[in-house]
Amino acid sequence: MQADSVLLNYVYQGAIEAFARRENVSLRRAFDALYKSLLYQEISQGVSDMHCRSDDYLAEELGRKWNLGAA
Fold first, then answer.
1. Spatial distance between the Cα atoms of 14 and 20, rounded to a whole number of angstroms
2. CA neighbours within 13 Å on the CB side: how many for 20?
3. What is the DSSP track for 3-65?
4. 11-65 pLDDT, tens per residue?
5. The pLDDT of residue 71
6. CA 59 → CA 28, 37, distances in Å?
7. Is the four-CA dihedral 50, 63, 33, 29 of positive or negative sign?
8. With the CA atoms of 12, 15, 17 and 18 taken in that order, what torsion angle do they form, in degrees rounded to the nearest 10?
9. Distance of CA 45 to the CA centre of its chain
């Protein structure tokens, strides 16, 4: 399911802020991590309704991939 672009912007913002807090990195680094990740593609394409997940869930998923060097 595709989400509205305004909604997606809130999802991205929340995930970036949660990831920055969780990993203790700058917002810029968190922004880069998200936008270079497979998770970003999944959210933007509506895969598995990832845009419906909580900020903390998305930050955790991004952290798993980022810590493995895949983000």
1. 10
2. 13
3. PPHHHHHHHHHHHHHHHHHHHT--HHHHHHHHHTSHHHHHHHHTGGGGGGS-HHHHHHHHHHH
4. 999 999 999 999 999 999 999 999 999 999 999 888 878 888 999 999 999 998 7
5. 46
6. 15, 12
7. positive
8. 170
9. 13
